[in-house]
Amino acid sequence: MIRNTLQRRAISRVFSVDVPPLTPQEVLAAAQKDMPALGIATVYRTLKSMVESGTLTIVNLPGEASRYELTEKCHHHFFSCRACGKVSVVSKCITDFKDMVPNSFKLERHEVVLYGLCSQCNKE
Q1: Pick from 38, 87, 45: nearest CA to 67
Q2: Same domain, 34 and 85
Q3: Which CATH number does the domain housing residue 96 bear?
Q4: Residue 117 in contact with residue 82, Cβ under 8 Å?
Q5: What is the largest CA-CA distance in the chain?
Q6: What pLDDT, in 10s, does the model give residues 41-100?
Q7: pTM
Q8: Residue 12 counted as domain residue
Q9: Are 66 and 109 in the same domain?
Q10: Domain holding 32: CATH number?
Q11: H/E segment holding residue 50
């Protein structure tokens, strides 16, 4: 049984708004607005239990720390700023991969990560 503690509720609220995939440190910073004494160990434990319960999904971008997002989100991809590390969700998807799949293989899923500069870093 998962306890519904104040800390868990503060962390859950971080994901109750439309947010991009977050690192544990980003979750901590956002949750500390409601709960300043919250620690990173509690964040890690809560994220782990939320993944195990199916509430959150781990997002692994190449060369970056794991991020977390709500499981119920529809199919999407990511844009990662190479300057500041900010990650945004890209909702459009190219779905016609039939010419890229080797003969006798069956495509089951795909992942796409776009890299560049976010609007803020592009100004600088």
Answers
A1: 87
A2: no
A3: 3.30.1490
A4: yes
A5: 56
A6: 999 999 999 999 999 999 988 888 899 999 877 778 889 999 998 888 887 877 777 788
A7: 0.77
A8: yes
A9: no
A10: 1.10.10.10
A11: helix 40-52
